[in-house]
C-alpha cells in the first residue's frame, strides 16, 4: 500500500468531523403580509439549502402583539419554539425570565462586533452575551403617497405638520380620503410617535417616550401632539377601525387614499405588488425628520437536542450573512443591519434611510421607536398606547389625554 491513499482517507475522516444531526427549527414570526412573506421565504430557502428543516409558525397580526401572546402561551406550557422574532427590550425581558440560548460562538466566529453599529449590537446582548441576531433596520417615521393623486391635486410631500394638514384639507375637499389608516392600537401608536418627534423634536421625544420624564409627558408640547392626533382623526375614512396595515397600504396603492404614515415595511408591500418608488408611490420622512429605528431580530430559547441547537446556530449564522441581509432587505423595505452590505441595488427610499440614520447618529436624532418595542419595556409602552388609542377613538380632550398619559406611565413604572 502506498502512502497516498492512506493520507487521502485520513483527510476525508478529518473533514467529515463528527456526525451532525439535521438542523431543525420551529420559527415563530408575524411576517404574513405579501411583502413580509416574500422576505421570510428568503431565510427559509437558505435554511433548507444548508440541510435544515424549517417548521413555520406564523402568527398574523401587524406589529407582533398576537405573536407575543402566542409566544407566552408556548413558554408557559414548557414548549418554547426554537427561534422567535423578538426585538428591543423584550429580548432582555425574556432573558431575565427564562434565559436565552448563548449565540456568542456564532457571533464571534463570524465577526459580528466589527460589522454592527454599537447601538444595534447592544440590543442583541444580554448581560454581555450575544442573545439575538438582527436582520434589518426599519425606519418608522415615513409617509407614503400615491403619486398620481398627489400630482393631480398639485400636492408635494409635506415637510411640516401644517403642510400635511393643508394637503389633507385640499384632498378632503376634493372627495379623496387623505390618510389610509388602520385603527389598531399599534398603528395609532405608530402615527403618534411620529407626531411626537415631528412637533417636539428629538430631545422632547427622548424625554417623553424614552426617559418617561413626567414633565415632558405632561407638557404643552404633548397637548399639541394630541391636538394634531385629533386633526388626523378627521382625515381617515369611516371604515378605518380594525383594518390591517397592509390593507391601508393597498388603499394608497389603489388610489383609494392619498397618504399612509407607516414604517418602511409598507415599501415591501408596494414592491411585492410591483409598484415602483418615484413612479407609482413616493416616500418621505414624516414632517420634522429624525430617524425612529425599529430593528427586527431573532432570539433563541433554550431547547434540548442537537438537531434543534444546530438549527439555532445555523439560523443565527444565516441571518447575519451578507447575502441574506441584502436579499431579505431588498424585499422587506428595510436596510441591512450590517454596515458592510453595499446599497447599490437598493432604491432611493432605502438610500435616504441609510443617510438619515447616519446623520441621526451624529446629531442625536437617531431614536428608538416606542411603538415598535425598541424604547421601553412592555408595561410602560402598553400604558402609553392605551391612552393614545383611547384618545384617538373618542372625543377625549388633549388636556384629559395628557393627564391620563402621565398617570398611566407613573403607575406602570
Ligand atoms: C416589524 C416589521 C413588520 C411590521 C408589521 C413591525 O413591528 O418590525 O417587521 O413588518 O411590524 O407587521
From TrEMBL:
<dbReference type="Pfam" id="PF01547">
    <property type="entry name" value="SBP_bac_1"/>
</dbReference>
<dbReference type="InterPro" id="IPR050490">
    <property type="entry name" value="Bact_solute-bd_prot1"/>
</dbReference>
<protein>
    <recommendedName>
        <fullName>Probable sugar-binding periplasmic protein</fullName>
    </recommendedName>
</protein>
<dbReference type="GO" id="GO:0042597">
    <property type="term" value="C:periplasmic space"/>
</dbReference>
<keyword id="KW-0813">Transport</keyword>
<comment type="similarity">
    <text>Belongs to the bacterial solute-binding protein 1 family.</text>
</comment>
<dbReference type="InterPro" id="IPR006059">
    <property type="entry name" value="SBP"/>
</dbReference>
<comment type="function">
    <text>Part of a binding-protein-dependent transport system for a sugar.</text>
</comment>
<feature type="signal peptide">
    <location>
        <begin position="1"/>
        <end position="21"/>
    </location>
</feature>
<keyword id="KW-0732">Signal</keyword>
Amino acid at each position: 500500500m502506498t502512502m497516498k491513499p492512506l493520507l487521502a482517507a485520513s483527510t476525508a475522516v478529518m473533514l467529515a468531523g463528527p456526525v451532525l444531526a439535521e438542523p431543525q427549527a420551529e420559527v415563530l414570526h408575524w411576517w404574513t403580509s405579501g411583502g413580509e412573506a416574500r422576505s421570510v421565504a428568503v431565510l427559509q430557502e437558505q435554511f433548507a439549502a444548508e440541510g435544515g428543516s424549517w417548521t413555520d409558525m406564523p402568527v398574523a397580526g401587524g406589529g407582533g402583539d398576537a405573536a407575543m401572546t402566542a409566544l407566552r402561551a408556548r413558554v408557559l406550557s414548557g414548549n418554547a419554539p426554537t427561534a422567535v422574532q423578538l426585538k428591543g427590550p423584550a429580548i432582555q425581558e425574556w432573558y431575565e425570565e427564562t434565559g436565552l440560548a448563548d449565540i456568542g460562538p456564532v457571533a464571534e466566529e463570524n465577526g459580528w462586533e466589527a460589522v454592527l453599529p454599537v447601538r444595534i449590537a447592544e440590543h442583541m446582548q444580554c448581560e454581555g452575551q450575544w442573545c439575538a441576531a438582527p436582520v434589518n433596520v426599519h425606519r418608522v417615521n415615513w409617509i407614503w403617497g400615491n403619486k398620481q393623486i398627489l400630482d393631480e391635486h398639485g400636492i408635494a410631500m409635506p415637510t411640516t405638520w401644517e403642510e400635511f394638514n393643508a394637503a389633507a384639507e385640499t384632498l378632503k375637499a376634493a372627495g379623496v380620503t387623505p390618510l389610509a389608516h388602520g385603527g389598531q392600537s399599534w398603528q395609532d401608536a405608530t402615527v403618534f410617535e411620529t407626531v411626537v418627534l415631528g412637533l417636539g423634536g428629538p430631545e422632547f421625544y427622548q424625554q417623553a417616550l424614552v426617559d418617561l420624564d413626567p414633565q415632558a409627558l405632561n407638557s404643552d408640547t404633548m397637548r399639541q401632539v394630541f391636538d394634531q392626533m385629533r386633526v388626523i382623526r378627521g382625515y381617515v375614512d369611516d371604515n378605518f377601525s380594525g383594518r390591517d396595515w397592509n390593507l391601508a397600504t393597498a388603499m394608497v396603492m389603489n388610489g383609494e387614499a392619498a397618504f399612509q404614515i407607516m414604517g418602511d415595511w409598507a415599501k415591501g408591500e408596494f414592491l411585492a405588488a410591483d409598484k415602483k418608488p418615484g413612479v407609482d408611490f413616493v416616500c418621505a420622512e414624516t414632517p420634522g425628520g429624525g430617524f425612529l429605528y425599529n430593528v427586527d431580530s431573532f432570539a433563541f430559547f433554550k431547547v434540548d437536542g442537537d438537531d434543534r441547537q444546530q438549527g439555532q446556530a445555523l439560523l443565527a449564522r444565516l441571518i447575519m450573512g451578507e447575502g441574506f441581509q441584502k436579499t431579505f432587505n431588498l424585499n422587506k423595505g428595510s436596510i441591512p443591519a450590517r454596515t458592510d452590505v453595499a446599497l447599490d441595488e437598493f432604491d432611493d427610499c432605502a438610500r435616504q434611510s441609510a443617510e438619515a440614520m447616519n446623520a441621526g447618529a451624529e446629531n442625536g436624532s437617531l431614536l428608538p421607536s416606542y411603538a415598535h418595542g425598541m424604547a421601553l419595556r412592555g408595561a410602560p409602552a402598553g400604558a402609553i398606547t392605551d391612552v393614545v388609542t383611547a384618545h384617538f377613538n373618542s372625543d377625549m380632550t388633549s388636556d384629559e389625554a395628557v393627564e391620563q398619559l402621565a398617570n398611566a406611565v407613573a403607575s406602570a413604572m
